[in-house]
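One thing: could you explain this record?
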Amino acid sequence: MHSDDPDYWCVAEALTPETHGGGSVCVSQFLAQQLRQRLPAINPQVISYGITLPTAQASFSDQPFRVVYSGRMVERQKCIQQVVHTLIHACRASSQIEAHLIGDGPARAACEQLVHQAGLADRIYFHGRVPPEQVQPLLQRSQAILLMSDFEGLPVALLEAMAAGVVPVVRSIESGIPELVQHERTGLLVGNDPAEAATALVRLSHEPELWQGCSTQARALAVAGYGADECFERWFSVIEQQRGPARPAFPIPTTDLRRLLPLADPRFQSQYPPPPPRWSRLQRAVARIMQAG
């Protein structure tokens, strides 16, 4: 289980690995608990994402205090306009704050327009897609990472930033995030209000001791349990366990899966209505062609 996303739950419910000679693996304890409650999974294992642990790390700076966002620029799940509104609030509240957004997506143009309308294009920068080897240097020059997601599994961007000593300011949601971010210890947890999140960023920029404590403990947590080598060993162990006794039952039925995807999550259905199935879009296109002929 990669994420607390309706599509993943649909796959899990349709396939249920334990009934086909396999096993379930989740990226966070939260997802494993949810899986035990919702599906007849005997004993889902937890293996987080493995990240490369950097040797260099961030240091405190308030001239400027750099805030980074790293991820897809989409509304569904990532709530990218809330991220941008938070950064606008923070930049208006403190001249010390500067923001860098890494990533691309369909909502990028609208977000850039918001920044231009706010007159902050010289302090909120859009880097677009960045090669993986350039992400760590950007992180190491930053002091905070901002996430305002509706749902998550265990964000890789958050892990990579914490491993570099970048302090998280993240929306407190039911997910793997609270396994990483403990308020005022490894980062700051905030609500859904961009003004509240902006206040947390400004606070970090004004309190070097709070920033340093969170930075040190965030890095220690990431280094202690999320290195790529350790996670590889866990996956290798799972594969070894499944190699001998597994008796897969074929064929695995997927009729319901094809019928149900893409799903809408009732928690977010008003914000994110599911796109129409591809076949219905094709039918409409054919109908237009017939009408034109």
Q: What stands out?
A: Residues 1-50+227-293 form one domain.
